[in-house]
Amino acid sequence: MNAVVVGDLLLDVDVEGDVARLTPYAPVPVVDVVSETKRAGGAGLVATFLKRDGHDVTLVTALSEDARAAELPPLLDGIALVAGRSPSGTVVKTRLRSREQPIARIDEGSATPEAPEITDAMLAAIAAADLVVVADYGRRLTEQPAIRAALEDAAGRVPVVWDPHPRGAVPVPGVVVTPNLGEAHGFTGVEGRGVPFADEAALRLFTAWRSAAVVVTMGAHGALLRTSVDGLPLVASGPVVRDADVNGAGDRFASALAVALGSGRLPSDAVQDAVLVTAGFLADGGVAMLEATAPVPLPGADHEALAVVERVRASGGTVVATGGVFDLIHAGHARTLSAARALGDCLIVLLNSDESVKRLKGPERPIMTAADRVDLLEALEVVDGVIVFGEDTPVEAIKRVRPDIWVKGGDYNAATLPEAAVIKEWGGRAVTVPFFPGRSTTRLAAAIQRVS
Prior knowledge:
Keywords: Carbohydrate metabolism, Kinase, Multifunctional enzyme, Nucleotidyltransferase, Transferase. It holds the Pfam family CTP_transf_like. By secondary structure, the protein is of the alpha/beta class. It has two domains: 2-289, UDP-N-acetylmuramoyl-L-alanine:D-glutamate ligase; 303-451, 3-Layer(aba) Sandwich (Rossmann fold), CATH 3.40.50.620. The protein has helices at 43-52, 120-127, 145-155, 181-188, 194-209, 249-262, 267-283, 303-314, 331-341, 354-361, 370-378, 395-401, 419-424, 441-451; strands spanning 2-7, 9-22, 29-42, 56-63, 80-85, 92-98, 101-108, 131-135, 160-163, 176-177, 213-217, 223-226, 234-236, 319-324, 346-352, 385-389, 405-409, 429-433. The strands form three sheets. It has a nine-stranded mixed sheet, with helices on both faces. Helix 1 crosses helix 6, helix 2 runs parallel beside helix 3 and helix 4 crosses helix 5.
């Protein structure tokens, strides 16, 4: 699929350092720099996501002639760059961070830009697109008449997803627009919060911009889709990723949405796909995953759970894990999981596979498939990730996750809990939490059978 990204190319710089003292003349942290990472930002980040997803990508942009602009083409490996000249300086956004926590951001080149040059090659690239993502960062590229005409023509042929900017141009008619909550408020003046606010803003933008669809992204609450002024909006949600670095999340959402639409997915399905892709991006560490070596997954493991473990451990937090079948989740399960989550900074559930359950419980079990059990567990606020294992015990999975605390609900001791010895190998502890009698899958299944 020939994906074309149209928009403003920025230079993103992440400076990581250690903070152990304040300056003697003011309560200002002193950052001892450990590393510096540069990446293409803005439209360049969208193009990078699409390239990593396996698509042929062309970036249509305006490039400055200063020294910082010369750093950008090498950061766009494998991406075709079709650029007009920008008479303005390159925008550089530098984030200062320590222990994965932001300290400050320094912006350069953000003054009001002059109009960029538009070339025939830029317009030809848009005309050849199978899908288009517009990443507008307010640098005046998308307000140029020739670019707007080319994008409006493209919208009549292929999916065009437009991520608007408060200082950018109004999207052309017929495109799918993806403002976040703050942008939706700024564009419409609508007051409020949550889904009612997002829907009212989407309705107003749909009419004012004559859009094909409006998707208001709502952070951890997913995204709201409007494709008409009649009927009901669609709200698509995904797994909640706590303490995530959300830098680049909007770009990841727009790129995933465009790919889904370009593949023929219905808007409702495409928005759900994009929400899940964005949640996975955040769980993997956000933009840091572009430089990191991908972790080796556990057999059958959910990579998002492993990413949570790595992130919590890197920040000095406590990793808690528990395990079980969790077939027909009941109140006893919920209380055990809540008690376990309270012991640390994340809770990973190691879940018996369907084959493992059959060996342990008999041929009639599980009642629910592993896929359904995973969905239910991940829907619980106290669960940060789920890993499915196929052995009869979770010992091998525990060795790879290496939790600081292993939790079981019930009357266990070291002799009856084989995992206890394994946990000690890296200094972890096995603990039990109170058992709640009268709650069991067997009892629940029997009660259902009686009333069925």
